Amino acid sequence: MGQTLRRIRQRKKHLSRSLSRRPLQASASYTSGGGGEESMADNDIEDLEMQVVRYKPEGLDTLCKNTKFTRKELQIMYRGFKQECPTGIVNEETFKEIYAQFFPQGDASAYAHYVFNTFDHDHNGSISFEEFVMGLSVLSRGTFQERLQWAFSLYDVNGDGVITKEEMLDIVTAIYEMMGRYTEPSIDDTTAREHVERVFQKMDTNRDGVISVEEFMDTCRRDENITRGMSIFDTVL
Fold this sequence. Notes:
By secondary structure, the protein is mainly alpha-helical. It contains twelve helices and four strands. The protein is globular and about 45 Å long. InterPro entries: EF-hand-dom_pair, EF_Hand_1_Ca_BS, EF_hand_dom, Recoverin.
């Protein structure tokens, strides 16, 4: 399992670097054409810049306060976000396609679905720019406490404030499916269930059959092995 966790961390760090740079790279490549294409690109960039100015300027100020990004970083990300997603939103299928590119050895669709739900705060089936940068801020620059809170929300699939054993098994299974052949030793349903059973017993300290956010946080802080295992969720983008 140690080798598997290291591979997951390496791939997720690569995913984080690649996607955080993508808006800036998209802006550069978009203006690299010549002649009429360059003129059109200039006009489009100017239009996008005007959109940044018109795009809820109070919202940008609020995002500066509520995230760990500067106003300039938010403007660059918004420009790239609009280029990649002209409608201004990311749907779940697009989100899954992004994950599939970085985990081709397995099936990332289930895990991407769960991550998408943590970003889609209003549960309308799409991720807005605000939701995107709020989630990215936590995952890329959040404190350990903030990342643990995000991990709890990932496991709390139905959002009822507690984690059931079935929910934990769903997430763990999705991770193994995503890693595919990189999972060493190979994991079957029985192994996954045994792993979940051990972790769940550690976290469910009052033995009520569910894990509260307090139990989750306390156990992760006290148990170094669980904390190391949970570190694979530190970043998702």
